[in-house]
Specification:
Distance between the termini: 94 Å
Number of strands: 12
Order of helices and strands: HEHEHEHHEEEHHEHHEHEHEEHHHHEHH
CATH architecture of the largest domain: 3-Layer(aba) Sandwich
Structural class: alpha/beta
Mean pLDDT: 91
Keywords: Signal, Transport
Shape: globular
Family: Belongs to the bacterial solute-binding protein 1 family.
InterPro entries: SBP (IPR006059)
Pfam family, one: SBP_bac_1
Low-confidence stretches: 1-7, 17-34
GO molecular function: maltose binding
Largest sheet: 10 strands, mixed
Number of helices: 17
Length: about 425
């Protein structure tokens, strides 16, 4: 090799070495200057597969917009609250998780949730949330959760059955509903009305004449004379009129199903029934209306779920970024845009046209006068005892008052042992 070639060879080697050293230095510098991605664990319960797919897409969008935050999404498919409470005690709970309004009062009182007030800025526009939904996650003047979606209850009615019975409009009062139910029974459907005898669906009837499910201390009070008046309407319709049916009477598994199979002409259900009915029973012609008034009072139920933050979360700023995205205007519109869930923000509902939608506008209208699905710190005792006894009264196995007094006393005894 000539001297000139020799110098060229070693010049090339030197250039490559310098390039490799420079690249290595750049990589080290990049690692030092780029923050490591933080992982936030999010837990919820399983739902409709389409909903799950939609949520995962929203989470992917969040990660794209927040490249330094990764979300580990975990579905707790069974015994959700039991699993969550165990993990909270053991300090292994997720950073962010779903919390149903029914369970919120207990957890909010246990100092395991992070108050969100200090994270909320004016730009977040808290006033945009429907106030009754937000109030379900307030405790001692602090906000512990931001509602992600909700549903009220509305009357679903079979349009063909109504036409066959000569009915052109939905009932506006409960007296009309009972009258319609008699006319519809035995026509195109076996029964006029399908009833679900659970506190989750009947709490608003207790309040129609001034009754309350619980008092200010969280003790059951639904067996009052005022509370019994609303419940008696259901018992009379089932026992005397014979114009309403339980799901077991017609061999179905739910109110949605007995309506979809045209076993009943009317049923009171929530937003979840709309995609179920349109997909499972595409030939069914149905419409919705606000729940008929009882004692000249509007009433329905409202169910809502919030995103909450674990007080022990290690990365609270990033956890808030996730919550604020999911419950912000952009994230909520993505999540509720298909109609599987209703947005808790008034502006999003308006943007999506749900307040004008023929099927969903009655659901939206009900949120301001609905009874929240929330009964103090120990709701399980109240719900279980009510459900166990009310069905026996409906079936005629004992008088309504006796059944409700028994369930109220049993619930309150249980609550005393838990306090």
């Amino acid at each position: 090799m000539s001297k000139k070639s020799w110098f060229k060879f070693w010049g090339l080697i030197a250039a490559i070495a310098i390039a490799l050293i420079t690249l290595h230095s750049f990589q080290i510098s990049s690692k030092l200057s780029s923050p490591t991605a933080v992982t936030i664990k999010l837990s919820g319960w399983g739902g409709n597969p389409v909903e799950q797919k939609l949520l995962k897409q929203v989470l992917q969008d969040f990660e794209t917009e927040h490249p330094t935050i990764k979300v580990k999404y975990e579905v707790i498919s069974d015994q959700y609250m039991d699993v969550l409470k165990t993990r909270l005690v053991g300090e292994a709970a997720p950073d962010v998780f779903y919390l149903d309004a029914l369970e919120a009062p207990f957890l909010m009182s246990q100092n395991v949730l992070e108050p969100l007030d200090s994270y909320i800025t004016p730009e977040f526009d808290l006033a945009d949330f429907a106030e009754p939904l937000l109030n379900s996650f307030k405790y001692q003047n602090q906000i512990y959760g931001l509602p992600k979606d909700y549903s009220t209850l509305v009357l679903f009615y079979n349009k063909k059955a109504f036409a066959a019975a000569g009915l052109s409009n939905p009932p506006k009062t409960w007296d009309e509903l009972q009258s319609y139910s008699k006319r519809l029974t035995g026509k195109l459907n076996r029964y006029g009305f399908g009833v679900t005898p659970e506190l989750a669906r009947q709490a608003y009837t207790i309040k129609a004449f001034g009754g309350q499910v619980v008092d200010q201390n969280g003790y059951a009070t639904f067996a009052s004379e005022a509370g019994l008046q609303g419940l008696q309407l259901l018992v009379d319709q089932y026992r005397q009129d014979r114009s309403s049916a339980l799901k077991s009477d017609v061999g179905t598994n739910s109110g949605n199903e007995m309506f979809g199979q045209s076993k009943v002409a009317m049923v009171i259900e929530g937003n979840w029934a709309i995609p179920y009915l349109t997909e499972t029973f595409p030939q069914l012609e149905f419409a919705t209306a606000e729940v008929p008034t009882i004692n000249d009072k509007k009433g329905t139920m409202v169910y809502t779920v919030a995103y909450v933050m674990n007080k022990q979360a290690q990365h609270k700023a990033q956890a808030w970024e996730l919550i604020s995205y999911l419950t912000g205007k952009q994230g909520m519109q993505k999540w509720t845009g298909t109609g599987f869930a209703l947005p808790t923000r008034k502006s999003v509902a308006k943007n999506l046209g749900y307040d004008k939608d023929p099927l969903r506008s009655p659901l939206v209208a009900g949120v301001n006068y609905a009874t929240p699905w929330q009964f103090g710190k120990y709701p399980e005792a109240i719900v279980n005892n009510f459900d166990n006894q009310f069905i026996s009264a409906l079936l005629g196995q004992q008088p309504l008052k006796q059944a409700m007094v028994r369930s109220q006393n049993a619930a309150n005894q249980q609550i005393k042992t838990m306090e």
